[in-house]
Amino acid sequence: MAVLPETSFVHTLHHGERTKEQAGLFIKELKCGSDGHAPFFTSDGWFYSDVLGENYCTYVHPPYKGRGRRPRPVRVLDSGLRYAQVCKKRDDKGKIVEITTRIVLGDEVQILDLLGDAGRSRTINTSFVESRNGKMRKDDARLIRKTLCHSKKAVFHDAHADLLAQVTNYARTNDALKVLVNPAAALFEQKYLHRTPAMAEGLIDKILTIKELLFRRPKPIGIP
Fold first, then answer.
1. Secondary structure of the chain: what % helix, strand, coil (to 5)?
2. How far apart are CA 163 and CA 210, in angstroms?
3. Does 220 have pLDDT greater than 80?
């Protein structure tokens, strides 16, 4: 799952195992659903650095000197590609005992300046996507381990997760996104404008009901 930290919008949801091949497909889906520019990525200690370099790069042909074989194209990473990891160390019982961060791709000074100008996420962390994962497991009984609610077929499991992600984006408000519109509001008067992640992204201008969500085709974020 890819979550935008400023709005908690679920940008991309991919179904698959935690393998390098599936990670590559996930990054391809994320890139196709955006403007193609490399954002600042953060994740846990996984192998995203390889697949990010394969998707956000260009191949440059070195000049031919006139003798021998022509040189092979050289892969050049996009200048805007930045990636940091959150590494968690656990004990024998699985309890987290230490959390460290490291910058894998990009310049440290530029990343710190980028975090300093951010609105909600000012440190290298994965709290937003972990929070969204926790709420998905709470709301979707199909994701709970050792339960009778598990899906018998993968197609139903994936479809329910996709629907829940869109309900979270378009039909559920987030208290962290509310806007103060009337500071002097009296009792029973509206003081805050409650927004969904899609409203914070500017995709819609009101909270959708489940019926309205099912009868429309929301425009993917980043696509004009």
1. 35, 20, 45
2. 10
3. no
